[in-house]
């Protein structure tokens, strides 16, 4: 008898229960729909929409003008250069840090400083560099006093200067994201290499190198995406010119004379989504590959 | 054998040297920031004037944006944390218990903001905030919290996910429920005490994010700590340097504290295994 009751009642009850279970997650999904998915949709749709609501490629057409293409190229250059420097320096530092015991204060402070500088510095980093390399900066005076070397006055507002400042959040970011990978290197692998007659060079080129390579390349891509998205530091350093894409977006949003600029901002933002999305997809693929060894 | 020992020692020295050089590279601008805040650019004389001005000795009018920004940022941090925990914690627990198939969706959505630059997000937020400001609420900076919840989501999700993975949520909830506890009691008196470390980590890192946020506040023309520092920098650069340094040091202190919490939380399950 119980089977008959179960057979009749369960399907509807199960549906009701699933519906009730799902309802609990509604606030979460609703919130994200409004503050995460809707804005993304506005950007993507807006890039292809004219002012009267029709479909247009005008915004996209403005993306491929020489001026805009140049801004994208400069941004890519700044990102790539700072990501290479950050990946190499930060990678070596991450390895050195991985040999320090997990609970030592040195390691705690190092990782804390790194994650603050890497992720929450922004404007404050820009000020820090003004106090290092600005007109009255500490290093500027040091170089002038000790070696008679004059730091160019516009260094911090130039592309090389921007790359230098970006390194200051790229190196710490590399330390944070690469640390788990080098932490995963096992002493046994090194001992095994030595027992089989391998030198330190053999260990790095034939064992650790190939194991770390996917993580290293993945971290490099993450750094690239990070620099490509960065805005605060550049905004605090440079106020007059538009060098990188986020500044172009700001200019377009703030322009109140030309209403067509909203579409341009959305097209620029959509362009950034494409670039960062592709880079992060590559990052995810490399992370999966790296996961084989870090398990 | 002795050759191996020498090599070990040399490698150790090399690692320390690397950490030292990179450490100096990272710490030098912080020192320069401090020096900048106490040195007069024209005369080169040193004084703690900027610091006394910062802590209330006159000059209130010029530093007004800073105080407004600081108060706003603290309010934003409180509202952001409340909203984030209210949305995230019950959902994560519920999905683990009843809707495990949604786990991947929740994870994907929570980590999505990492791949979405703030400057892109804000382009889409402009119309949303225009609607909020004109139809629902007002233009007060505290409503920036709505956007900041999205920004802190990846960090908070990871912290809470680590915490929830370290405890047996299903058994704890089943035990509490079968003893007659209501859902609010389960969360407040059974789950939360076991997640203290994870909740603290999520809170610390979220506070660090909120205090450092600039892009969205600037583009939506709201005043927070960072836009305040930016404004004050034009009138009183030394005070701006002092505030920047203090904020960075506060963030570092938060995260050092966090590392003590999370390391303890991680060690516990490992000990049980061995």
Task: Supply database-style keywords.
heterodimer, A: 295 residues, mainly alpha, MetI-like fold, globular, B: 274 residues, disordered C terminus
Question: Architecture of the largest domain in chain B, CATH level 2?
Answer: Orthogonal Bundle
- In round numbers, the mean pLDDT of chain A is 79
Summarize the amount of helix of chain A as a percent range: over 70%
Q: CATH topology of the largest domain in chain B, what is it called?
A: MetI-like fold
Q: Kindly state the mean pLDDT of chain B as a whole number?
A: 80
Q: Which CATH first-tier class of the largest domain in chain B would you pick?
A: Mainly Alpha
Radius of gyration of chain B: 23 Å
Separation of termini of chain B?
33 Å
Main sheet of chain B, how many strands, which sense, barrel? none
- Assembly annotation: heterodimer
**Low-confidence parts of chain A lasting 5 or more residues at pLDDT below 50?**
1-7
**How many DSSP E strands of chain B?**
0
| Cα shape of chain B | globular
Number of structural domains of chain B: 2
Instruction: Please tell me the CATH architecture of the largest domain in chain A by its name.
Output: Orthogonal Bundle
Number of strand elements of chain A:
0
What structural class do you assign from the helix and strand content of chain B?
A: mainly alpha
**Structural class designation of chain A:** mainly alpha
The chain pair forming the largest interface, with residue counts per chain, is:
A-B, 84 and 85 residues
The number of domains of chain A is 2
Could you explain the architecture of this structure?
The complex is a heterodimer of chains A (295) and B (274). By secondary structure, chain A is mostly helical. Chain A has helices at residues 2-24, 26-46, 58-63, 66-98, 105-119, 123-133, 138-147, 159-183, 187-195, 200-229, 232-237, 245-254, 261-294. Chain A has 13 helices and no strands. Chain A is globular and about 70 Å long. Chain A starts with a helix and ends with a helix. The longest helix of chain A has 34 residues, at 261-294. Chain A folds into two domains: 1-46, no CATH class; 61-294, MetI-like fold (Orthogonal Bundle). By secondary structure, chain B is mainly alpha-helical. Chain B folds into two domains: 2-47, no CATH class; 62-273, MetI-like (MetI-like fold, Orthogonal Bundle). Helices cover 81% and strands 0% of the residues of chain B. Chain B is built from twelve helices and no strands. In chain B, helix 4 (103-115) crosses helix 6 and helix 11 packs antiparallel against helix 12. The longest helix of chain B is centred in the first third of the chain and has 37 residues, at 2-38. Chain B is globular and about 75 Å long. Residues 265-274 of chain B have low confidence and may be disordered.
């Amino acid at each position: 008898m119980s089977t008959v009751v179960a057979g009749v009642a369960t399907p509807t009850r199960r549906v009701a229960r699933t519906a009730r279970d799902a309802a609990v997650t509604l606030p979460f999904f609703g919130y994200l729909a409004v503050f995460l998915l809707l804005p993304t949709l506005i950007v993507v749709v807006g890039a292809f929409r004219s002012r009267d609501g029709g479909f247009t490629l005008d915004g996209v057409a403005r993306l491929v003008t020489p001026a805009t293409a140049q801004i994208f190229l400069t941004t890519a250059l700044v990102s790539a250069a700072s990501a290479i420097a950050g990946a190499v320096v930060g990678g070596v530092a991450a390895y050195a840090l991985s040999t320090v015991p997990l609970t030592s204060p040195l390691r705690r402070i190092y990782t804390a400083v790194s994650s603050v500088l890497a992720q929450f510095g922004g404007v404050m980093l820009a000020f820090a560099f003004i106090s290092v390399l600005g007109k009255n900066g500490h290093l500027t005076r040091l170089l002038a006093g000790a070696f008679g070397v004059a730091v160019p006055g516009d260094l911090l507002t130039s592309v090389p200067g921007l790359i230098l400042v970006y390194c200051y959040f790229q190196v710490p970011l590399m330390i944070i994201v690469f640390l788990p990978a080098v932490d995963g290197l096992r002493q046994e692998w090194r001992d095994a290499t030595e027992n089989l007659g391998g030198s330190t060079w053999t260990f790095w080129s034939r064992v650790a190198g190939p194991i770390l390579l996917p993580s290293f390349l993945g971290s490099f891509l993450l750094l690239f995406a990070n620099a490509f998205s960065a805005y605060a530091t550049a905004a605090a350093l440079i106020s007059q010119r538009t060098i990188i894409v986020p500044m172009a977006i700001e200019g377009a949003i703030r322009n109140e004379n030309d209403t067509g600029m909203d579409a341009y901002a959305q097209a620029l933002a959509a362009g950034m989504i494409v670039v960062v999305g592709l880079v992060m997809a590559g990052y995810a693929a490399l992370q999966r590959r790296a996961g084989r060894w870090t398990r | 054998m002795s050759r191996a020992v020498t090599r070990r020692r040399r490698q150790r020295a090399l690692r320390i040297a690397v950490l030292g050089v990179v450490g100096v590279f990272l710490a030098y601008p912080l020192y320069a920031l401090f020096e900048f805040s106490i040195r007069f650019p024209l005369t080169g004389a040193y004084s703690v004037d900027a610091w006394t001005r910062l802590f209330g000795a006159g000059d209130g009018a010029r530093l007004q944006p800073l105080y407004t920004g600081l108060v706003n940022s603290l309010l934003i941090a409180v509202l952001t944390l409340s909203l984030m925990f209210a949305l995230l914690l019950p959902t994560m627990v519920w999905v683990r218990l009843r809707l495990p198939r949604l786990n991947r969706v929740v994870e994907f959505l929570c980590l999505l903001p990492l791949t979405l630059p703030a400057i892109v997000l804000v382009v889409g937020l402009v119309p949303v905030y225009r609607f909020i400001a004109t139809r629902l609420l007002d233009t007060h900076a505290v409503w920036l919290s709505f956007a900041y919840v999205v920004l802190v989501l990846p960090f908070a999700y990871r912290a809470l996910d680590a915490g929830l993975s370290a405890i047996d949520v299903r058994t704890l909830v089943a035990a509490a429920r079968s003893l007659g506890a209501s859902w609010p009691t389960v969360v407040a008196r059974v789950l939360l005490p076991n997640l203290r470390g994870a909740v603290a980590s999520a809170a610390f890192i979220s506070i660090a994010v909120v205090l450092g946020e600039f892009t969205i506040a600037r583009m939506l023309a709201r005043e927070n700590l960072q836009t305040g520092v930016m404004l004050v920098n034009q009138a009183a650069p030394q005070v701006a340097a002092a505030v920047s340094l203090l904020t960075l040091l506060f963030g570092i202190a938060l995260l050092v504290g966090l590392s003590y919490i999370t390391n303890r939380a991680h060690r516990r399950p490992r000990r049980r295994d061995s």
